[in-house]
Design brief:
The chain contains twelve helices and ten strands. It is of the alpha+beta class and 341 residues long. Strands 2, 3, 4, 5, 6, 7, 8 and 9 form an eight-stranded antiparallel beta sheet that branches. A two-stranded antiparallel ribbon has the order 1-10. It starts with 9 loop residues before the first helix and ends with a strand. Bound molecules: zinc ion. Zinc ion binds next to β3, β4 and α2. The site of zinc ion has 9 residues, from β3, β4 and α2.
């Protein structure tokens, strides 16, 4: 046993270590304990060589396969904001202050139009996936390795179209088997880089993405499969966890100097809403930036890893109309707490 140092208060030290040990044990298990674990967005390879990721799509316990949702993404003062849009695939009539601002700006002058583009609505999909092979595991520390684990995958429309093809092609498609853990088909996400666009930006190319031809089980033991299927995330709850309250919307809208444009609509559409008092006085500029810090963490908690900046530039896929939008994935939380109780 090491000799005791005269510089260290032994009793205090033991207490300290015990406390730390306790804190460590108290950390909630990230799976199935109020936390959602998201899969880090897969990265692209080069123009000639794809990076390949293998995953299995899995349904949640309500039998939901994957869900679509909308979001607004923008950056202000080097901070990124990823805001779930209140409009849902089922109810586009819901009031969303960001869509509202976007609409109004769109009717304005050139500058306004540019601004509108900044707040435009984007779509995304989310699905439970079992990670069969993520090549980044090779270099990842043990705690960040994901092979053989369950994650939530947020994917763009280009991936969805691959899924739809498989589901709707009655002759060749694998149908429900793309969601079957026991006798199903992996999704091989193959990502190359496109040639730089006119602004020099390089976008990922998902064209080679396909489902495996040979059906397999995700795990050898039936019990293990049961266990995995038992811990899938509830997609509806997950989406709900992304909601932010009206006060936060108000603060951010003010921060972006959009409040005057939409205030009337906002008050009319949000029942019994009272504008925050502090911001009433100072109205514009500095107010909000100070106050919203807490909310920003929503997008900042992401585990920081070497590639983040790169990803921001590149990982967002192109949508059909070829509109380039900044990426959001690496800005999203790896861990997301359910905040709706
Ligand atoms: Zn919206």
């Amino acid at each position: 046993m090491a000799k005791k140092s005269k510089w260290i208060d032994n009793k205090k030290f033991r207490e300290f270590v015990n406390q730390k040990r306790k804190e460590k044990n108290e950390k909630p298990d990230p799976v199935g304990d109020g936390y959602y674990l998201k899969w880090r967005n897969p990265q692209m390879g080069t123009q000639t060589k794809a990076k390949v990721y293998k995953i299995r799509l899995l349904p949640d316990k309500d039998g939901e396969f994957y869900k679509k949702y909308f979001y607004h993404f923008f950056q202000t003062n080097e901070k990124s904001y990823y805001i779930k849009c209140n409009k849902t695939a089922d109810n586009l009539d819901n009031y969303c202050p960001w869509c509202n601002a976007n609409q109004i700006l769109w009717k304005g002058n050139e500058n306004d139009k540019k601004k509108a583009y900044r707040y435009k609505r984007n779509e995304r999909f989310v699905c439970n996936v079992f990670i069969v092979d993520d090549p980044r595991d090779v270099d990842a520390d043990n705690e960040f390795k994901v092979n053989g684990k369950l994650r939530l995958y947020e994917f763009p429309a280009t991936i969805e179209s691959k899924i739809i093809n498989e589901l709707t092609d009655d002759e060749q498609g694998y149908g429900e088997k793309i969601f079957d853990p026991e006798n199903g088909h992996d999704l091989f996400i193959k990502i190359k880089a496109k040639a730089p666009d006119k602004n020099g930006k390089i976008w990922p190319d998902y064209a080679d993405t396909a489902f495996s031809k040979v059906p397999t089980a995700i795990l050898e033991e039936k019990e293990e499969i049961e266990k995995t299927m038992d811990s899938v995330y509830d997609l509806s709850k997950y989406l709900k966890s992304l909601d932010i309250d009206w006060k936060t919307h108000e603060k951010l809208i003010k921060q972006e100097l959009l409040w005057d444009d939409i205030k009337e609509n906002f008050m009319r559409n949000v029942e019994d809403y009272k504008e925050s008092e502090e911001s009433e006085k100072e109205e514009s500029e500095e107010t909000a930036s100070e106050e919203t810090k807490t909310e920003e963490t929503e997008t900042e908690e992401t585990e920081t890893e070497e590639t983040e900046t790169e990803e921001t530039e590149t990982e967002e896929t192109e949508t059909e109309d070829n509109d380039d939008e900044p990426s959001d994935e690496d800005l999203l939380n790896e861990l997301k707490k359910i905040n709706q109780e």
